[in-house]
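Deliverable D5.2: sample structural annotation.
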Amino acid sequence: MDLEIQQRVKDLTEKYGAENVVVLLGGSEAEASGLSAETVTAGDPTYAGPLAGVSLGLKVYHVLEPEVKKEYDPAVYDEQCSMMEMVLDVDAIIKEVKTIRDQYSKF
């Protein structure tokens, strides 16, 4: 997660409260999605960005997770995500993000 996005997440969390912020990730690899999930929950593991040492504990999901997928307009999901769903290792991505969420999310 780049430094600009980390700052946006931090600013939005300060403005609206961590209990009111949910982060949706769209990374194409489990490891990258896990790092992003860890960044918004436990803090930037690389200690390079605005969230270094900042444990926000935010709710975090990947756009392909069933919990959030059911909330989308099916036509939009089909257009924007269905092709990627066929080529990505969806199970690995979901497992990685869920593991981080279960470990560090406070909400």
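Annotation notes: The longest strand covers residues 22-25. Residues 3-104 form one domain.
The annotation will be released with the project's public dataset once the embargo ends.
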